[in-house]
């Protein structure tokens, strides 16, 4: 398993007491497969993603990323693990306005100490994989919303992460562009063997995934997706 959450419980301070955002949640996502996480507002989806991203340490339970148990790791170790093993795609692409599409990706490799020449060729390869080979030298304002989200996805894959965490990637897109982005995520998940978690409100997305996990009041029920 590339991503394994076992019996994860997370609480937040809430007045005099604690609010249980995740209640003994277990989730395992193998390489090359995509799990959709659905559930009503406030059910714990973002909390689940934040725990999987190692951005929040749960009160109890185990989080294993690409074979590495995160328990007891220092902040620096977790940052290194995130950089190496986790790619994130959020609703808004958050691209840097002054950089071209290729440079947005190259920055990631630079942070990782890779050679600039290798970074450039990997950036171009990934932009081609997301259908933007001819847009590599455009800046964000010269791209459409769907194209910006594609750059965002390519950037998340720059360091060949084992785990890809995706939060509502199509919420800013119309139906057709949203469907194309979802198709792309499915293809990349299989091609690049990432363990992908997709938080979504869109039930149309559920047909494309391998497994659906529904969160309600911090508890998780898994059921198989229609691809399997
Ligand atoms: N930092 C925090 N401090 C206190 N409570 C929080 C915090 N973050 C989230 N919560 C609470 O934890 C619960 C789960 O929130 P979470 O953001 O994970 O839900 P969600 O399913 O992602 O919701 P949405 O679909 O609206 O984004 C909610 O009751 C929320 O109010």
Automatic annotation (TrEMBL):
Signal peptide as annotated in the record: none
Protein name: ABC transporter ATP-binding protein
GO molecular function per UniProt: ATP binding
InterPro entries: AAA+_ATPase, ABC_transporter-like_ATP-bd, ABC_transporter-like_CS, ABC_transpr_LolD-like, MacB-like_ATP-bd, P-loop_NTPase
PANTHER family xref list: ABC TRANSPORTER RELATED, IMPORT ATP-BINDING PROTEIN
Domain of life of the organism encoding this protein: Bacteria
Keyword Translocase: no
Family matches, as CDD domains: ABC_MJ0796_LolCDE_FtsE (cd03255)
Residue ranges of every copy of the ABC transporter domain listed in the record: 3-228
Keywords from the UniProt entry: ATP-binding, Nucleotide-binding, Transport
Keyword Nucleotide-binding tagged: yes
Pfam families noted in UniProt: ABC_tran
PROSITE patterns: ABC_TRANSPORTER_1, ABC_TRANSPORTER_2
């Amino acid at each position: 398993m590339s991503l394994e959450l076992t019996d994860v419980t997370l609480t937040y301070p809430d007045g005099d007491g604690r609010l249980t955002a995740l209640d003994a949640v277990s989730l395992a996502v193998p390489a090359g497969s995509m799990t959709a996480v659905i559930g009503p507002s406030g059910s714990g989806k973002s909390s689940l993603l934040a725990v999987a991203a190692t951005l929040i340490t749960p009160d109890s339970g185990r989080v294993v990323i690409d074979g590495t148990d995160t328990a007891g790791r220092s902040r620096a170790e977790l940052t290194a693990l995130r950089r190496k093993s986790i790619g994130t795609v959020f609703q808004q692409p958050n691209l840097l306005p002054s950089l071209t599409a290729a440079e947005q990706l190259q920055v990631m490799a630079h942070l990782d100490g890779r050679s600039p020449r290798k970074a450039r060729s990997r950036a171009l390869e990934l932009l081609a994989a997301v259908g933007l080979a001819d847009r590599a030298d455009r800046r964000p304002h010269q791209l459409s919303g769907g194209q910006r989200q594609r750059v965002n996805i390519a950037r998340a894959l720059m360091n060949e992460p084992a785990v890809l965490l995706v939060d509502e990637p199509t919420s800013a897109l119309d139906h057709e562009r949203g469907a194309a982005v979802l198709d792309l995520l499915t293809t990349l998940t299989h091609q690049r063997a990432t363990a992908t978690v997709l938080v979504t409100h869109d039930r149309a997305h559920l047909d494309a995934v391998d497994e659906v996990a529904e969160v309600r009041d911090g508890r998780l029920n898994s059921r198989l997706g229609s691809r399997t």
